[in-house]
Amino acid sequence: MPQPDRRGPRTTKRGDQVAELIKGWITDGRVRPGMRLSKEAELQQAFNVSRGSMRDALKALEVQGLVTLSTGPEGGATITEVPLERAFLSLQNYLFFQRVSLEDIYAARRALEPLLAAGAVAHLTAGDFEALERSIEVCEPFAASHEHALDQRHEDIHFHDVLAAANPNAFLRCLCQIINQMLHSLVVVAGNVTQRDYQAFGRATVAAHREILEAARRRDAESVSRLMQEHMEQAEAQLRKVHAALRQKLVVDSDLGLHARRRRPQ
């Protein structure tokens, strides 16, 4: 158990100071996800703070998603890795006060997705290739109900989720995963879209994904980057023209479960 470094930041509340010191342990690598901190009374003594300040610190860390708290004889605080959904919600809170358009989202995707996909190529496993293939099969065009059409559009994005998960660049991966999460929350199938238009959109997406997959199987990162760039440009044009009505919908916790259920597991 690391000992407190009392050179921590000076904040108004002692509980805030203690929370920052524990976060320092995380960034220093001295505590890792799954590691249990000492009992509350021991932490209180180690930091030389009151019981209330110690509880405030642990509660603040829990709200930030950095620890989970449990009660009982074996209870306490356990370090947890912040899930993507929580990071996404924090960004969404910021976006409540911004105007984000489809053009804004795809400007970021055009810049990031080719880089992300190319960087993932060398790290794709047999399981990743199976997931990418399965995603393409789910999205093969067919005369679908509205519900199936919506599932397919989420699966289109899941193809990119698989590539993102394989990229070792944690910062780039996070940015692209958050964009994908945003798209999962925004995309709906427009009610006035004809089956012909839907089929055309589906065929174009499947063809692009299959080309990307085949280039990835060859470990041809340069081709993957080029194909992804073309795919991003085509997808934006198609979404604008015929297929999806994007709605500015800032999600709440309950929505995340719905989106997760709609996506197939990797």
From TrEMBL:
One of its GO terms (molecular function) is DNA binding. InterPro entries: GntR_C, TF_FadR/GntR_C, Tscrpt_reg_HTH_GntR, WH-like_DNA-bd_sf, WH_DNA-bd_sf. Keywords: DNA-binding, Transcription, Transcription regulation. Residues 12-82 form the HTH gntR-type domain. Pfam families: FCD, GntR. SMART domains: FCD, HTH_GNTR. This is GntR family transcriptional regulator.
